[in-house]
């Protein structure tokens, strides 16, 4: 999706395609960050 939106932006200059490209990049970075961190174990209040 990121490559497609960049290609559309590069060919047309469409701002919406650029914003989609940036959003896809942020999503990729967030997924990498969450994959690198271990899940937090839930603690019971008992």
Structural class: mainly alpha
Distance between the termini: 46 Å
Rounded to the nearest angstrom, the radius of gyration is: 17 Å
Sheet-strand content, in percent, reads under 5%
Q: Uncertain regions: pLDDT < 50 for 5+ in a row?
A: none
Helix content: over 70%
Assembly type = single chain
How would you characterize this protein structure?
The protein has 2 helices and no strands. The protein is an all-alpha fold and 46 residues long. The chain has a domain at 2-31. The N and C termini lie far apart (46 Å). 2% of the residues are buried. The mean pLDDT is 84.
Key terms for this structure?
46 residues; mainly alpha; 2 helices; rod-shaped
SSE layout:
Layout (H helix, E strand, L loop, with lengths): L1 H11 L2 H22 L10
Short description:
The chain has helices spanning 2-12, 15-36. With 46 residues, the chain is mostly helical.
